[in-house]
Design a protein that fits this description.
Blueprint: H1 3-14, H2 22-25, H3 30-49, H4 58-61, H5 73-76, H6 118-123, H7 131-134, E1 142-149, E2 151-152, E3 159-160, H8 165-176, E4 190-194, H9 220-229, E5 238-243, E6 255-259, E7 263-266, H10 274-288, H11 311-314, E8 341-342, E9 346-347, E10 368-370, E11 388-389, E12 415-418
Parallel strand pairs: 1-4, 1-5, 5-7
Antiparallel strand pairs: 2-3, 6-7, 6-12, 8-11, 9-10
Helix pairs in contact: 8-10
Length: about 425
């Protein structure tokens, strides 16, 4: 664990007095980790609420000679939540009809909680970005991503790291299936991806003039390349994913990302199959949305944390059979429905779901009270400790505050992480 990462985690825990000694600072376990995560989420929610956009006048909304009743004129002169929409058009019905009947909540600037203000989702961004044309809605969570990629001949001959339409569709399908309820009654998260496919989506492009093996991670070179290839009008709206051959001078890591932020790297070198790339994109975007490798903590390889954020399932797919083994066809974040596992007293007949049983030590018998370390290879975080392993509801705990990273408001709660290398098939 890097000193920077350790100190950032310690700072989060200390908001609650969560560490008692230097020995416990390296890893925040159990309830302390949950409390630290909850404290960060509350702080991020406050950052979103404290970031009002500019206001749009009623004249703009009603420029087509729309007749406003005298009794509602006062509401059209006020904007209680500062989202850029007059109160008189925010009808709070959960149904968008038009710019004069938005269905949004006049007391919440971001009705759907996706980090984009209602006024900008209805009328377009102050930077000139036409968000409605891109497909956003003020009543359904939207997640916008731009991919810029490299082509190279390293390691395996000429190839491109550009995501394909099939990869983008797979990412979109996973988020669309999320058990997340939106104000309009729909479920799921709408992912809008620009990989240079044409039409309105011409921001994603091949990166020229730089080596396809980045010298570092989210360093000066990364930001120089981003500045050359990413429209500044998209800052605060799009997450940015750079796709080199490798990063950090040739690392075999599959990616790197801010935990709560807007910048990530996906680097699959020659292991850039559809499955590997789609799942790694989801994994790195999960970091941008605030998730750790253990959900609320860095404790990795937990067999009961059923998420692509978990190295155990990142490339294998999540567990659909309750046997703690990945299903190659399944992409998902955890839904928080697995049992907790006490490594000091494992109950093999209950497995991870209550049924079927799992013979953890493979001795042919099912034991009550087995003591066994279930993730011994994760020594950097929790693999050397006998402890309780908890699942986590990823989907219910995403934060969309990362789009504000360019404003410098997230540094007190933000960390960075590198991720596992892709398996060789």
């Amino acid at each position: 664990m890097s000193r920077k990462f350790r100190f950032q985690r310690l700072a989060i825990a200390c908001m609650l007095g969560g560490v008692a000694s230097a020995a416990s600072a390296d890893v925040v376990y159990g309830d302390q980790a949950r409390e630290a995560f909850a404290a960060r989420q509350a702080l991020l929610a406050g950052i979103l609420d404290a970031s009002p956009k500019g206001k749009v006048s009623a004249d703009t909304l009603f420029q087509n000679s729309f007749e406003v009743a005298a009794s509602s004129q006062q509401n059209c002169d006020s904007d209680r939540d500062g989202d850029g929409l007059p109160d008189c058009v925010e009808t709070n019905t959960g149904r968008f009809v038009s710019v004069s009947d938005t269905g949004t909540d006049p007391d919440h600037a971001d009705t759907d909680g996706d980090g984009l203000r209602d006024g900008e989702e209805v009328l377009g961004a102050e930077t000139g970005l036409d968000l409605p044309a891109l497909g956003v809605s003020p009543l359904r969570r939207d997640l916008l991503i731009e991919y810029d990629w490299f082509d190279s001949s390293y390691d395996c001959g000429p190839h491109s790291q550009r995501p394909t339409a099939a990869i983008a569709a797979r990412v979109a399908a996973m988020f669309a299936s999320a058990p997340v309820l939106n104000p309009d009654g729909s479920s799921g998260i709408n992912v809008i991806q620009d990989y240079g496919q044409g039409g309105l989506f011409v921001g994603g492009n091949r990166i020229e003039g730089h080596d396809a093996i980045l010298p570092g991670s989210l360093d000066a070179t990364f930001h120089q390349i981003k500045n050359e290839n990413f429209d500044p009008a998209r800052l605060g709206y799009f997450r940015y994913v750079m796709m080199p051959h490798r990063y950090n001078g040739g690392s075999s890591s599959s990616g790197y990302a801010e935990i709560v932020g807007d910048d990530a790297i996906v680097s699959l070198y020659c292991q850039n199959s559809e499955s590997n790339v789609a799942r790694t994109i989801a994994h790195e975007v999960g970091h941008l949305l605030g998730l750790h490798h253990g959900g609320f903590e860095e404790c990795n390889n937990k067999p009961n944390y059923n998420s692509l954020m978990n190295y155990r399932y990142q490339f294998q797919g999540v567990d659909t059979q309750c046997d703690a083994q990945g299903d190659f066809a399944a992409d998902d974040f955890s839904r928080g429905d697995r049992l907790s596992l006490d490594e000091n007293a494992l109950r093999e007949p209950q497995g991870v779901c209550g049924n079927p049983a799992i013979d953890w030590n493979r001795d042919g018998t099912l034991q009550e009270g087995l003591a066994m370390d279930l993730n011994p290879n994760d020594a950097a975080t929790c693999g050397t400790a006998m402890r309780k392993l908890d699942d986590f509801d990823d989907w219910a705990n995403l934060t969309f505050a990362g789009v504000l990273d360019f404003k410098g408001q997230l540094k007190s709660v933000q960390s960075e992480t590198g991720c596992a290398g892709a398996p060789v098939h």
